[in-house]
Amino acid sequence: MTLLFLAANPIVAAAIAAAAALCFVYLVRLNQLLSGTPAEIRALSPSPWTTELLLKTYRRLEANPITTKSYAHRIPPKLARRYIVTGGSGLVGGYIVLQLLERGQPPESIRIVDLRRPDRDDMAHGPATDVDFVQTDISAPESVGNAFEKPWKQDLGHLPLTVFHTAAVIVPSDRSKLEYGFCEAINIRGTQNVVEAAKRFGADVFISTTSASISIRPVQFWLSPWKLWSGWLPNFWQILDEKDFWLPLRKHEDFYANYPASKAAAERIVCEANTAAMRSGTIRPANGVYGNPTDNTVGGPLQSAVFPTWTPHIVQSFAHGINTAIAHLQFEAVLALPESHQKSQAGRPFIITDPNPPIAYRDLYLLVEMLSVTPFRTIILPPVVILLLAHMIEAYTLLRLRFPVLQWILPPMQGDIKHLKPAIFSICTHLVAHNDVASRPVSRGGLGYTGVLTTLEGMTQEVIEWNHLHQNPTKTKRFQSSVSLAEDIQRATSARSHHGESKHAMMK
Predict the structure, then answer these.
(1) 3-class DSSP state for residue 459?
(2) Are 331 and 283 spatial neighbours (Cβ–Cβ below 8 Å)?
(3) CATH architecture, domain 39-380+414-507
(4) Burial 379-388 (b: 16+ CB within 10 A, else e)
(5) Total Cβ atoms within 10 A of residue 24
(6) In a designed cystine with 260, which of 68, 181, 213, 352 is the match (CB 3.0 to 4.6 A)?
(7) Opening angle at CA 425, ends 422 and 431, nearest 5
(8) pLDDT per 10-residue tile (average), the chain, 508 residues
(9) For 109, which DSSP code?
C-alpha cells in the first residue's frame, strides 16, 4: 500500500528520498568527526608505541619488575600516625595500604574499611595480611561509626589519625536523574558519613580520591547541519584541570554523567571540611585509573579475546594506581603539619597523571595484542552507529524507569551492552590532563608530585602480571571490574532496602 501511494505521488517520494539522503550525509559527516583527532591533540601525543618499544619494555620489566621495594625511595617517609583507608581493598586504596607498609607503618596501625576483603594477589601475603579489616557499608552512618569506633591497640590509640577515603562506585554510563540515587547514596552521602565519623573520632588529616572526570563537559553531538561542517564537535577534546573547582558547582546536566556529578558534590563536602582540627583535600587522578586486572582500562581488554571498539584514535591521559597512591601520601605529608589548614594546598583538589604525554587507545590495544599470552583482537566499529545504538539503549532503560508497569513486559538489559549509553561518548573522547599544580614544590603551593612510573611501564607491568597468572591454564583467575563490582553493590543495597521496607511494613 505504501509503495502504491509513493508511486502515485512522485513529489512525496522525491521529498522522502531527499530527506533520507540528507540524513545519510549528516551521519557520514558526524561519523567522520567522531573518527578524527584534532591537530592540537595529535601534537600532544607525538610518539605512538611501536612493537620494538613494547618488547624492549617487557623484557626490562620482566627482569626488574615494579614492586613497592623498587620505588620505596620515592614514597614519603613514615609518620607516627594511625590510618583508616576506606576502599582499602580496591585499586587506589590497596596501593595506599601497600605503600604505607613499605615505608614502615606497622600493620596494626592501618585499618581497611570496605564492603569486601582484599582479593588482590599483592595483598595476599606479607604484612598486608595482618592489616585490620572492618566490613563497612559507607552509605549507612551506623556502619561507618562502628568501623571508626573499633578500638586500636593500646600503644597506638594516642597517635593522630589520617583518613584516606577512596571508597566509591563507578557508574560512567548513567546520566539521568532517574538513575542518580545509587551514586548519590554511596559517593555523596557515603562521603558525608565518613567525613562526619572522621571528625567525631579525632582525625586531623582527611584526603579523598575524586576524579579528573569531574571537569569533563558533555560532548555536543547533534548540531545543526551548518555547524557540523564548520569544525569539531563542541567539547570533543578537552584539557582536564582544577579550574571548575573555583566556580559554583555546575548543574547536574552540565556533567557528562551521574558519576562525575556525584564525585563533584562529594569533593565539595571534603574540601569544605578543611579546618585547623582536620585538614582536608582531594586527589583527582586522570582519566582512567589502572594498575590491576580489576581496572576497566587495561583489565577490560585483557579479559576480552575479541574487543569491539570505536576509540583506537582517541587520545587520553591515564594515572596508574601507584602514582595515585603516591600523590595521596605526598598530600598527607603537607597536611600533617598543624598549621597547614591555612596553606594554599589545603581544602582543594589536585589533578595528577602519569609522568608522560597522553597516549592513544591504539597504543594500548597494540600492547595487549603483542604482549598478552591470552588471545586479543579488536573489531573497529563506526562510532556513529554505536552512538545511535547507545541512544536506543538509554531510551529503553529510561522507559522502564519512567513507567514501572512496563517492567512486567520489558525485560532489563543484560550484559555489558546495558552500559552502552551516550554518556560513554563523553568519557571516550580526547581528554588530556596535566599535573602542573600538583608537581610544583610544596613551597610554591604544590605537592612536589612526580609519578613513579610511566603509562608504558605501568601498562606493560600489568600485562606481565596477567601473563604470570595465566601461563598455567589450571590457575587462571577471573577478575571483577569496578563497574561490575558497582552492579553487585547496587543489587545488595537494593535487596537490603527492600528487606528494610518489608520489615518496617510488618512492624506497622
Answers:
(1) helix
(2) yes
(3) 3-Layer(aba) Sandwich (3.40)
(4) eeeebbebbe
(5) 10
(6) 213
(7) 150
(8) 60 75 94 96 90 98 96 97 97 97 97 94 94 96 97 90 96 93 95 98 97 96 92 95 96 96 98 98 94 90 94 97 98 96 96 96 97 96 97 96 92 89 96 94 96 97 93 61 56 49 32
(9) G
Burial of 247 (0-12, 13-18, 19+ CB in 10 A): exposed
R_g of the chain computed on alpha carbons: 24
Residue of 381, 384, 345, 379 lying closest to 365 (CA atoms): 379
The residues with which 206 forms a beta bridge, in sequence order, are: 163, 280
Query: From CA 341, how far away is CA 279, in angstroms rounded?
Result: 5
- Cα-based torsion angle of the residue sequence 391, 393, 396, 401 in order, rounded to the nearest 10 degrees: -100
Comparing CA positions, the residue from 241, 233, 188, 177 lying closest to residue 214 is 241
Identity of the residue numbered 36: G
Is-contact 205 332, C-beta < 8 A? yes
Q: What is the DSSP string of 90-107?
A: SHHHHHHHHHHHHTT--G
β partners of residue 161: 82, 203
Grid coordinates belonging to 315? 587520545
Q: Are 138 and 167 in contact (CB under 8 A)?
A: yes
Cell numbers describing residue 306:
575479541
Residues 6+ apart with CB under 8 A from 85: 93, 96, 97, 110, 111, 112, 113, 163, 164, 166
373's CB contacts (< 8 A; 6+ apart) are 466, 467, 470, 471
User: Sign of dihedral through CA atoms 205, 208, 212, 218?
Assistant: negative
Q: How many whole angstroms separate alpha carbon 44 and alpha carbon 58?
A: 25
